[in-house]
Specification:
FAD/NAD(P)-binding domain; alpha/beta; 3 domains; 5-stranded parallel beta sheet; single chain
């Protein structure tokens, strides 16, 4: 392209951090690159450790503006409210609209409280995303735990990796103050970590129960009112705080573009990472749905998509063929259990202990260090 092309990156997720840190490649091809992000990037890999007291907020977040500005790009600290595909404009909440020739969405995901009656409007409900919620929850709990009153009663909803990590690190936060936890983990599945080997599930269930977590499995939360959770087996739980980890869904914006999408999975993309209906719109990470090879909503997939996205944006500008992204079939997941131990999962293999957590910390530090943290 001989004239300047406007490349707009919406959202500072894992993939866009990489693009921002290499924006000179796009600029060298005649692009003006703008990143739209309302604030800091919070790293999901360290989020539960931050809740448990392992990390301070500053250790878990990055400034995306500094990354892209160092490369000659621009950052707009604002929130997207609409996208006009016909005029190719990104409408912002508090800033003038941005024109684009290429648009890339890395919007992350959200926890949807709406299936549980009363949660959407309730106070002291803490969805696991955005991650800044977990920092606010920690501050709130630390104030309570430092006092003389009984520790607040907590419920974690969701028995997947995030729910397990949250429950374990809430126990760790209590231990830092010498307090006895009152934590119930509720899961609709018959066992925790239902996609992990059964032995791993059994081990983590025993571990959490020994540390004082009450488990309510194979039961669903159907309502919340006046500090009381109602379960579908008739049980009622009195709680002061509810932490939501009951699955991630795509942001609502992905369903407002008039493009092929799934209301929960996100914007449909081709293996080249753009919409099949509009080749100017790319999407990656949790907000995108690769229908031919769906992948979990985990940061590792956004990290692997990042170099493919950057290559394809550059190729589009140069009029060259795009390359395909192929999700990995196996991936390593290491849970921080808040007690100096980790639980590592790789396909049908698993191992536990201090070495697992040491590995996780090494990987997390490496990720943050590549962006100057």
């Amino acid at each position: 392209m001989t004239e300047t092309a406007n490349v707009v990156l919406v959202g500072a997720g894992h993939a866009h951090l990489h693009v921002a840190a290499h924006a000179r490649r796009l600029i060298a091809r005649g692009a003006h690159v703008t990143l739209v992000s309302p604030g800091s990037f919070w790293y999901s890999g360290m989020a539960t450790g931050m809740l448990g007291g392992d990390y301070q907020a500053g250790q878990d977040r990055l400034d995306p503006a500094a990354l892209i500005e160092a490369q000659g790009g621009e950052c707009v600290a604002d929130r997207v409210i609409a996208i006009d595909r016909h005029q190719r404009l990104v409408q912002l909440a508090d800033s003038p609209p941005l024109a684009y020739d290429l648009l890339s969405l890395n919007l992350g995901s959200r926890v949807d409280p709406s299936p549980i009656f009363g949660l959407s409007s309730a106070d002291n409900v803490w969805p696991a995303k955005p991650i800044s919620n977990l920092w606010r929850l920690r501050q709130h709990l630390e104030t309570a735990l430092a006092g003389d009153a009984e520790a607040p009663r907590l419920a974690v909803i969701g028995g997947g990796p995030t729910g397990v990590e949250l429950a374990a690190n809430l126990v760790a936060l209590h231990a830092r103050y010498g307090r006895t936890p009152h934590i119930t983990l509720v899961s609709a599945s018959e066992r925790l970590l239902s996609s992990a080997p059964r032995a791993a599930s059994a081990w983590i269930e025993r571990r959490l129960e020994r540390r004082g977590v009450r488990l309510e499995l194979a039961v669903s939360v159907v309502g919340h009112q006046d500090g009381e959770l109602r379960l579908d087996d008739g049980m009622r739980l009195n709680v002061e705080h509810v932490v939501l980890a009951n699955g991630l869904v795509a942001p609502e914006l992905t369903g407002e573009l008039g493009l092929s999408c799934d209301s929960r999975q996100g914007l449909t993309i081709t293996p080249a990472l753009h919409s099949p209906d509009d080749s100017r719109i790319f999407a990656v990470g949790d907000c995108a749905w690769l229908r031919q090879a769906p992948y979990p909503k985990l940061g590792v997939f956004g990290v692997r998509q990042a170099p493919v996205l950057l290559d394809n944006l550059c190729a589009w500008l140069a009029g060259e063929p795009l390359r395909d992204y192929r999700p990995q079939r196996r991936y390593l997941s290491v849970l921080n259990l808040g007690d100096g131990r980790g639980l590592a999962l790789w396909d049908r293999w698993w191992w536990k202990g201090r070495l697992a957590l040491k590995l996780k910390r090494r990987l997390d530090r490496r990720f943050m260090a590549q962006y100057g943290a």
